[in-house]
Amino acid sequence: MNERGGYKQDAIRVGLLWLGLVVVLEAVWFATEILPRQYAEEAKIIDDAFNLLTILGIPVFSFVVAMLIYSAFRFRSRNDASEDGPPIKTSKPVVVTWLVVTSALALAILINPGLVGLAELRANPEADLVLEVEGQRWQWVVTYPNGAEVRDELVLPVDTRIRFDVTSVDVLHSFWVPGFRTKIDAVPGLVTSVYVTPTELGTFTDDVNLRLQCAELCGIGHARMVMPVRVVEKAEFESWMAEQLTAEAPAAEGRG
Ligand SMILES: [Cu+2]
Fold first, then answer.
1. In whole angstroms, what is the distance from residue 218 CA to residue 169 CA?
2. Each residue of 226-247: b (16+ CB within 10 Å) or e?
3. If you measure from the C-alpha of residue 225 to the centroid of ligand 1, how many angstroms do you get, rounded to a whole number?
4. CB 3.0-4.6 Å disulfide test: which of 12, 17, 114, 162 passes with 66?
């Protein structure tokens, strides 16, 4: 058998297999919507990054899978040979190409969406509303600007740039609302901040992605460390916030 011709044929076949996998997987990715609905401006930035990384990742993943599948069938031992096959020598052009291509890809995504996306998310340090969030095993306590302390529902005004100042009283927790996408660690003794600008009205009862969910394994109650989120009109938010203060007064006395 002509070795040179054989390798060329292998390269064509594995190349076609790679191309086929790329076309199928990219088509599946574009045809399906696996991401939850976007409820905040920040969600668009993060989803764009996720999309780009998936689109770029599919050819790399497919290359490895194509090589694996092809090699497993094409080069399997056809008899009961128990001895090793011929040694494989390194190929300088392949190594150099591999290093250059993968380094360029890694550097490109580090810059965009990595650094560019982070800069976009943190572009504006101003906030129209600042909420203090405290994580504890196993619930969230949110303090509003008027002093109201809320534990059962996180109510937010739409079209408002909100900064959450997050901390923890015991162990590491993580502040995460799937509908908003942004996430930040809640660290004892430290205040970390994350910005969210809700763009859509909605409530947890209609969409489970509107919930403040702990995203850092923190003990037995971790999965249930959930606070329903409701995004409302600005006017409704103001009156709701005022109500919380009057509703809270007797309860606060009872808690001592
Ligand atoms: Cu947790």
1. 12
2. bbebbbbeeeebeebbeebeee
3. 6
4. 17
Pairing of strands 202-203, 154-157: unpaired
Distances (CA, A) of 244 to 80, 85, 233, 237: 78, 75, 16, 11
In this prediction, residue 5 has a pLDDT band, given cuts at 50, 70 and 90, of: low
Query: By three-state DSSP, how is residue 54 classified?
Result: helix
Q: Is the dihedral of CA 86, 87, 88, 92 positive or negative?
A: negative
Distance 166 CA to ligand 1 centre (A): 14
**In the CATH hierarchy, which top-level class contains the domain 129-255?**
mainly beta
pLDDT on residue 129: 96
If you measure from the C-alpha of residue 111 to the centroid of ligand 1, how many angstroms do you get, rounded to a whole number?
Answer: 31
Q: Separation of 209 CA from ligand 1 center, angstroms?
A: 17
142 CA from centroid of ligand 1 (Å): 16
pLDDT category, 249, cuts 50, 70, 90? low
Tell me how far the alpha carbon of residue 218 lies from the centroid of ligand 1, in angstroms: 4
Cα of 141 to ligand 1 centre, how many Å? 14
Domain extents in the chain: 3-75+92-121, 129-255
